[in-house]
Protein 1
Amino acid sequence: MSKNLSRREIITRAVYAVGGAATFASVQACGSSAATTTTPSTGPTPKDFPYEQHLPAGYQLDPAAVKEPAYHAYYEADGGCCHGSYSALMKHLAATAGAPFDQLPADFGRFGAGGIAGYGSICGSILGGVLVINQIVSNPAARGAMMTDLLRWYEGASFPSYTPATVDAAEAQKPPTLDFSAGNLVNLQTTPGSHLCHASVSGWCAARGVAANSPDKLARCSRLTADVAAKVAEMINTYLASTATPKTYTAAALDSTSATCLGCHPKTSTTRPVASGMSCAPCHADKVPPNVHP
Amino acid sequence: MSKNLSRREIITRAVYAVGGAATFASVQACGSSAATTTTPSTGPTPKDFPYEQHLPAGYQLDPAAVKEPAYHAYYEADGGCCHGSYSALMKHLAATAGAPFDQLPADFGRFGAGGIAGYGSICGSILGGVLVINQIVSNPAARGAMMTDLLRWYEGASFPSYTPATVDAAEAQKPPTLDFSAGNLVNLQTTPGSHLCHASVSGWCAARGVAANSPDKLARCSRLTADVAAKVAEMINTYLASTATPKTYTAAALDSTSATCLGCHPKTSTTRPVASGMSCAPCHADKVPPNVHP
């Protein structure tokens, strides 16, 4: 699926240079004064979707390089978690792979903060990652597996784990009360259990004894955003490195407790069907072992 | 914020036509054979985000016109609810407002089916709508209010309510067992309560006694997709009709039961903070009246 963009780019640029020169020369020679700014239409455009086809053979992102930008973008005005992961990944793609990533607005993820406009739905850092995966992956089955894998990984991961190279100016102005130093970070970690911002943020804040609008919450979620952005980069790299045709990706299996639930509540049930790929326990603790099923 | 695109378009097209003709004439006259395809760079591009600035003054979508395409797009291979609402709205915008909507892939929403890759997260038809609102609205406060309003509306609306003009070929091939005729549709309606696909689909299917992977589920969700797409068009119209500077939008208030919950569980609490804009009852029935609070 991948094409060699270096080659393609060279050709595109050469055609453009020749074409531009020819047009300029002819306009000069013929004395026409019509002034139109033109751009080549031979390169990839946002409509040539998905964008895996425009990546050079062997292309890989640098997961370490997206962490710090993701962390700082979180603290921008009208920023947040979705903007953090989305903009860091898209800017990295634009800088390292060019078109059409550099023709898209890196600001597209600002809406997703706090589980979409503070609603507490899907964690914005995941949503930003999902949107970037969707830009690239051409195989629908692999795309679905990657998104499922990202959601499951998030639910079971310990956050936060990134320590920024430089504390953001906004964080320094209103510093957290907890100790976010690299050595102590492990003591601040919890596993969200759910991919919903509402549960992830409320649970962490309650466990740490801090408010959900505190500087501590911001310090936690900005670092989590860096963690998620790097994970998305790693996942895309795994997919791009697939040698299968089309490229494949395998998601982690559903946890065993939830798998047991679906044994009696499959999609095919006409009495209690369950349409879900997520873990059951976080929202239905009363219905999973060791509790009694009602 | 809005510019008159008709005027702008006329100018752009005129410049392009003149430029194109001049280049062609000069190339012909001077005998150059360099063949470059050029596109005008004077019109709006996807990077000129958000796109409200490119809409003609007084622009409005036609909510009725997006319903049928949204319903049919749901049934496409690798289609679904998010693709249904997103592609119907984006194609309508491309056809009626032009650039940059016509420079973006209408296929971007295919990932969102079944609450993102079947995971049961946010209903894809809402997510598709959220992504379209995000393309347009430039005022972050209004953008957030619109997304909140869409999510709250969905949770309390009765679905499905649209009756397609033509039954989709895929639906006709595997028809639902329930009576989806216009006269009987009211008897098939339920209120999702939650904006999550998992709860919305599982709840409706259980209430109707059908499987979550049945033709009945498809018939329900395809019509719901049309309902949501039209609602999003109406909301964007309300926003665009705002005469305030910047344009404003007011979301419906949180339901009174949930508002009571947040009285004791505000974001500012350091013991049980709740970060959420959604309704509490659907997931915490054991904690809201008339049940006893644990």
Note: Confidence is low (pLDDT under 50) at residues 1-40 of chain A.
Protein 2
Amino acid sequence: MSKRLGKQTVALTSFPSINAFASIVGEKEGQGPLGLDFDAIEKDPYFGEETWEKAESRLYERGLALTLSKSLLTPDKVNYIFAGDLLNQCISSTFGIRSSHIPFYGVYGACSTMSEGLSIASMLTDGGFSDNSVVLAGSHFCSSEKQFRFPLDYGGQRTPTAQWTVTGMGGVVVGFGGPIKITHVTTGTIEDYGITDSNNMGAAMAPAFAATLTTHLEDTGRSHDYYDLIISGDLGIVGKAIAEDLLGEKGIDICNHYDDCGVLIFDGNTQDTHAGGSGCGCSASVLCGHFLPKMAKGELKKVLFIATGALMSPTSVQQGESIPSIAHAVALEVM
Amino acid sequence: MSKRLGKQTVALTSFPSINAFASIVGEKEGQGPLGLDFDAIEKDPYFGEETWEKAESRLYERGLALTLSKSLLTPDKVNYIFAGDLLNQCISSTFGIRSSHIPFYGVYGACSTMSEGLSIASMLTDGGFSDNSVVLAGSHFCSSEKQFRFPLDYGGQRTPTAQWTVTGMGGVVVGFGGPIKITHVTTGTIEDYGITDSNNMGAAMAPAFAATLTTHLEDTGRSHDYYDLIISGDLGIVGKAIAEDLLGEKGIDICNHYDDCGVLIFDGNTQDTHAGGSGCGCSASVLCGHFLPKMAKGELKKVLFIATGALMSPTSVQQGESIPSIAHAVALEVM
């Protein structure tokens, strides 16, 4: 029986739910406006390791352990892990979960990783393929700077539109029986408005967010104000304003019930983070540390989570390519 | 209703099928033993572009077009594309499918990409979430050498255990109603036997193949000789022999009905390819060019396809890490 709804959306009918969630962030994120929300703050940027890449792997390893411990599940009860990251060949997820022996599907959606993993896990759960799945997404400021921009030691200047990669992760368990249900998944298409400035990811990703949100509303026949809150991943201050403009042109005014994880996680006035937070770990840690606890307490009941990803690499930018982006929407509802 | 079977396997009960398949390879692959099997052979290694990365993107773009044309589907009838590749941040899949506007989930499983994508697409189809999905996997010798080893101009020597990354791709359409059914999916766990030689991927990946095959047989209660043929992705000559040894130790002798795509695609005696072919495009092109046509003709009826991936990066190897690997099994049956 088809569960398809409109062009890009599926309706989940077996009531899969988010049964546990966990977040770990670095010191800077812990000093930000949401600092008190996260489960753990690690002050050592190396996480006890000797390289930034190994630090990020350790973050994933601890994140998986914490997610499992909060769910009271042992690894043998988990049917799938979906995880991905920003490092070349996604090594931080691989090495972080290597010792768990949980069946693993690597996903790559750049900063949209949490909503991509959550989407696939939710459908597989709804379809009877999974009883318990873990979704992990994270990033590390120092490994990202080294890989995508300059080694930290170089002391490069940052443009005003640049975002600050979050050191942090979020993990969820998707299963059955919890109060936070996953009701719909809208899968994004690649959008490319021709932005070529890799220091302005917010501008590159805003069209993908606007497209996925618009399609979700069309497919479900819902008005945007069905949701208590619409959340974008890491558009940051610049991208959030562009997204509001793009939606405004279509007559969709979400301003009074819309937040962006990249805007929320840092205080731009005091933390020198320019346009805000970014990275797979940005939307993942804010979802798991800030928003899901609010849903668990009943403070938010209907939430549309849309993480966004810029699907570029340093090589593609150097070769003059524009920055294609994508966004996937997951509708969450407390029932 | 749970579709789970044993530890890592699901049984697909709605009879999803592979409804179309396409393959494109480079000139060297076209000169190999399977040359006549592929749909298209491109003699220009640049595919009309100016960089190796853009050449690989063009390969994906053409591969998608060919897969769709063989399926008689227009892009608007395709619910999902699952694609991934070996390049940093998976840019060849992103840029290759950018203009299609088909909902997209990026997957990362290194050379296991085809079986990972096929697994997820098959489950989502079986679960009623997708009517038609495309899975694409490909690789390019020159972009891989540049990224993982040395630029070609350097003229580096290759060790006897080294494999030759296939320039090629394979694409399938998963839907309903075709004769080649996808009956079971067994998801792999990360296996790591401590191999640190990045010029011996076959040895690194063989344990993952053996583990997934063993688990598949346990989960389904089948003997290995249920299958006309068991196919590994790109273990190559070295890895295939190790896999046979590892399985032999468990009393599983598959030698007389076991092939490896990396062994088949090149003639090691005349093509200077050392231990055989590798890359996402190896198992994908051989599956789509060589094996699926045999199934369509009824020459093979029951096939277990297990692509393998080495989940490393140049950075992880340089930092002294071993090479973790994974393998996912997809059971195909003509009905």
Note: Chain B touches chain A through 60 residues (CB under 8 Å).
